[in-house]
Specification:
This protein is mainly α. It folds into 4 domains: 34 residues, no CATH class; 86 residues; 107 residues, no CATH class; 165 residues, Orthogonal Bundle (hpI Integrase, Chain A). The protein is built from 20 helices and 5 strands. The protein has a 3-stranded antiparallel beta sheet with strand order 3-4-5, with no helix packed on it. Strands 1-2 form a two-stranded antiparallel ribbon. Strand 3 and strand 4 form a beta hairpin. The longest helix has 24 residues. The radius of gyration is 28 Å and the shape is flat. The protein starts with a strand and ends in a 5-residue tail after the last helix. 28% of the residues are buried.
């Protein structure tokens, strides 16, 4: 502590001649007294010992949780947090052994911020194994969906499809280190539409095996365009011989959201100067507007993806690093030096480029989405405009390699970007008749 000052120089207590008692009378650490001449950390350990270790010997998991909570960089925040009635009841249940320290036991409790925050702390400190949050939520959602599915043959088909198609793909993405949020959202939407289709079949006294192309076409025509999403399921069902040869045409969007290059550059200039109102969201907005990164990827970026080379900063977004031009390079360095939410948990070495408010978690994509939308940024339009500008200046294979896109996607955007020029050339060659 440097409570003294001599002109512009900060001084310790001895040099400043300060005799105020600022030592903890329990651990001896130099710290402000929290109560009864002990520091906040010792007060926290005293309180948590009473709740989590009511008997001897202590439950190993409860003792591990006690050490994890007491290791927080700001023990005052844990002292405030544990005063909440829900938190106090949960900690007491863990100390008494009525709630086990496991993912299954926490899943059985009413889900809420208190339970999830405690889970994140336990995972962060190694008391619980890491598991992907989005995958766990999808599994719980799927169990509830299957329990409500009717008839039984429909539930079996949905379970097989979800297991061998979606869950297998999600596990593959996890092994590659890719975020699952977008995949989970799509899977839920698709399975919901499949369930509606199954319900309709039952109402028509049909099954998958007895459904004809005419039945399918009638169902597609009588509802919204989201019904076309079952196309992949029907192809899977045909391969596994649980449905006849039914076809759903691939639906092509009527329009692609985008905006003019001048508008994109104006937004970039605003973000590089003074908007959004915090550094975190300025960096996130530039990653969207300059590198065409989806918000799920932006939120889950790690600091190790920012490299400092002899030629300057580069970002590792795909197979090849992408250069970071000025002035974004300085903005990115400023963000790395001042990342928020590093007091969560007990370590300041978070691997995330955008640390979240919960221990070990990155910032939620929805949080970034809300902030950018509030500034008038059309997220899909901004992303399409960014990749369109890139494929017009750089060969599509290089864009795909540097930004983490598939070559097919990059070529498709290149074709869309060139389409107006192609139409113009055709008009010059074959002018319309008067």
């Amino acid at each position: 502590m440097l409570p003294g000052r001599d002109d512009s120089q900060l001084l310790c207590r001895s040099c400043a001649g300060i005799t105020t008692d600022l030592d903890c009378h329990r651990c001896g650490a130099e710290a402000e007294h929290y109560r009864r001449r002990i520091c906040a950390r010792c007060a926290l350990r005293e309180d948590l010992t009473t709740v989590l270790v009511p008997t001897t010997p202590a439950l190993p998991a409860a003792e591990q949780l006690l050490h994890a909570l007491c290791a927080a960089q700001r023990p005052e925040s844990i002292l405030t947090w544990k005063r909440r009635p829900q938190v106090a009841a949960l900690l007491a249940a863990i100390g008494a052994g009525t709630v086990a320290v496991s993912h299954d036991a926490l899943d059985a409790l009413a889900s809420g911020p208190v339970v999830e925050h405690l889970r994140d702390l336990l995972v962060h400190h190694g008391a619980l194994p890491h598991r992907d949050r989005d995958l766990a939520r999808f599994r719980r959602w799927l169990d509830d969906r299957l329990a409500a599915a009717e008839p039984s043959w429909a539930a079996r088909a949905i379970e097989q499809y979800a297991t061998w198609h979606h869950l297998r793909a999600m596990n593959t993405q996890l092994r590659r280190g890719e975020p699952l949020r977008g995949k989970v959202h799509y899977a839920k939407q698709e399975i919901t539409e499949i369930g509606r289709f199954m319900t309709w079949l039952q109402q028509q006294d049909l099954t998958l095996n007895t459904c004809t192309q005419q039945h399918l076409d009638r169902w597609l025509a009588d509802g919204p365009s989201t019904r076309f999403i079952i196309r992949t399921f029907l192809r899977w069902a045909r391969r596994h011989r649980i449905a006849p040869d039914l076809h759903v045409a691939r639906r092509v969007p009527q329009s692609t959201p985008t905006f003019a290059e001048e508008a994109r550059l104006e937004l970039l200039a605003r973000c590089l100067r003074d908007e959004p109102d915090t550094l975190t969201y300025r960096v996130a907005a530039v990653l969207l507007l300059l590198y065409a990164q989806p918000l799920t990827r932006i939120a889950s970026m790690r600091t190790e993806q920012v490299w400092s080379t002899s030629d300057g900063l580069v970002l590792v977004l795909g197979d090849e690093p992408a250069a970071v031009p000025a002035p974004f390079d300085q903005l990115l360095l400023d963000h790395l030096a001042r990342r928020p939410n590093l007091q969560t948990g007990s370590h300041s070495d978070s691997p995330w480029l955008f640390p979240g408010t919960r221990a070990g978690q990155h910032l939620a994509p929805n949080t970034i989405m809300t902030r950018l939308r509030s500034l008038g940024i059309d997220l899909q339009g901004a992303r399409n405009a960014a990749i369109k500008a890139l494929v017009q200046r750089v060969p599509p294979p290089i864009v795909a390699s540097q930004l983490g896109y598939s070559p097919a996607i990059a070529h498709r955007h290149a074709e869309h970007a060139a389409a107006p020029d192609n139409r113009y050339a055709a008009l010059i060659t074959n002018p319309p008749a008067n």
